[in-house]
Amino acid sequence: MRPLRVAGFLDHSTVNGAGFRSVLFLSGCNHSCPGCHNLELQDFNYGEDATISKILSKILKNKLLIDGVTISGGEPFEQSTGLLPLLMALKKLELSIWVYTGYLYEDLTQDPSKSTLLPFIDVLVDGPYLEAYADANLKYRGSSNQRFLKLTQGKIETLLVY
Hints:
The chain is α/β, with parallel strands linked by helices and 162 residues long.
């Protein structure tokens, strides 16, 4: 199983999705959004390699406290091959899964290597960070163009509003 390049991990967060969540930050991003909140995480070499079992052990320590897990970055979909086994394992643990991406959902569905992740995601926060739409008062996102998509089996069930 391919390790993930991990930029960071938060045991507990209330600002990276609804509820009390653990957050995994993955390294590497090609979007280069001006004003990026996690600029250092764009580097594919930033952070350290971590096995799925090491990441799961951190999450399992928090399982009784958390409502779910958020995957952010960087760009999580740049590590889709390594990320798939983790998402599958998290689904078996019955934790909600939020994923932040600079891609649009419609583009992800057209990419076979990236679309394989969609059936395991409960909420996809999609769209690039756009400085022109930035607002510090927004909940769970950096710019108002980003959408909260409730997914069921990889398909959009509804657009969520926070």
